[in-house]
Amino acid sequence: VCVASSDLPACQAIGQWDTKVIMAVCRPRHQLQQPRHLLLVAFDQHAVHERVLLEHLAKRWSRHPRRRQCSRARLQSASCRAAIRFGDILRRRECAELLSLLRHCSAPFQCAHGRQAVWPIARLNPLIDEGKGDAADYILEALRSAVPTPAPISDSVSGPSSEQRAFSSTFLSDRELPSLAVDFKVCSDIF
């Protein structure tokens, strides 16, 4: 499961998770013949904004002959200091705007320092009916209403599997997505 830069225009922001990550659904262009195939993708909000700012500063500085002397390290540092931080709350509209700006970047999958900024999380099995409208809204609603929240983690055999517990406890914020029982393949080595 992978995301290419050509897939970014097809990414729709779902919202923010844990005030650190922008979650989005994306329909990979190389799979357009399968219109129901979607990917759940995580974007590091700080790294994404840092990349957008770095490329904006680099373009602005390159237009001024006196400023061309400015080192890449100084531009990286300035973009890092000015970027959105973990803990900053973003509305869905702001998440969508950042993703829109990211698709115009020359290196959209790395922060200003070269750290990975984007992770494909899961391939979502066919969930979208053609007349449903916004795929992100549909996926978010499907994630929220799939199944009642699992019982608290316990050692009993009747509770959720250890895989379900690990996924829900380390990946999802209970206040954002209270349940997840959608049939998809989770990439286990993401974070």
Largest sheet: 5 strands, antiparallel
Give me the number of helical elements: 5
Distance between the termini: 15 Å
- Biggest β-sheet: strands ordered side by side in the sheet: 1-2-3-4-5
Percent strand: 15-25%
| Number of beta-strand segments | 5
Inertia-based shape: elongated
Instruction: Say which CATH homologous superfamily of the domain at 5-131 is assigned.
Output: MutL, C-terminal domain, dimerisation subdomain
Question: Can you describe what's shown?
Answer:
The protein has 191 residues and is of the alpha+beta class. It has a domain at 5-131: MutL, C-terminal domain, dimerisation subdomain (formyl-coa transferase, domain 3), CATH 3.30.1540.20. Helix content is 32%, strand content 16%. It has 5 helices and 5 strands; from the N terminus they run E-E-E-H-H-H-E-H-H-E. Strands 1-2-3-4-5 form a 5-stranded antiparallel beta sheet. Strand 1 (11-17) and strand 2 (21-26) form a beta hairpin. Helix 1 (45-62) packs across helix 3.
Provide the fold topology.
Elements: E1 11-17, E2 21-26, E3 38-44, H1 45-62, H2 72-82, H3 92-102, E4 118-124, H4 135-145, H5 162-171, E5 184-186
Antiparallel strand pairs: 1-2, 2-3, 3-4, 4-5
Give a short summary of the structure.
The protein has 191 residues and is an alpha+beta fold.
